[in-house]
Specification:
The protein has five helices and four strands, in the order H-H-H-H-E-E-H-E-E. The chain is α+β, with helices and mostly antiparallel strands. A four-stranded antiparallel beta sheet has the order 1-2-4-3. The longest helix has 20 residues.
């Protein structure tokens, strides 16, 4: 199955085809947040964090993971859960701080800092799924 065919597969939340990239994924997250009654005004920085985490993880899947093969977003218990699958068996990596002059490698530390949890699970047929839980409501909101 080619990356183009994989992108046409239904998403794991049953809503729509797997996003083709970060912009489409952010649009899906926006829809999920709005459907839960959350807006940029009501959750302030968490909205921006949700868009940033979505962008980082989907960009990694496209750039390093052979393309998006699955995507879901849901709001539960004042948190946003994202599931992003790609075609690569390789685990996400971070850049050695001593090599900060090289591009890349800074997204995953940022995702880890913003999220309550981050898990990476290998898929039985190959590839992996990254699951993050991002808090939406904080004392500052």
């Amino acid at each position: 199955m080619t990356n183009r065919e994989l992108r046409r597969q239904p998403s794991t939340d049953g809503r729509a085809p797997v996003p083709t990239g970060p912009a489409t994924a952010r649009g899906r997250v926006r829809e999920v947040l709005l459907a839960a009654g959350l807006t940029p005004e009501t959750i302030r920085m968490a909205w921006t964090d949700a868009m940033l985490v979505t962008s980082e993880l989907t960009t990694n899947a496209v750039r390093h993971g052979g393309g998006l093969t699955g995507f879901s977003a849901r709001v539960e218990a004042e948190s946003l859960e994202l599931r992003i699958s790609d075609a690569s068996d390789e685990l996400p990596t971070t850049r050695d701080p001593g090599n900060s002059f090289l591009p890349g490698g800074f997204g995953m530390p940022l995702v880890k800092r913003l999220c309550r949890s981050l898990d990476v699970t290998p898929e039985p047929g190959g590839g992996k799924t990254v699951v993050v839980v991002l808090p939406l409501l904080a004392a500052s909101d």
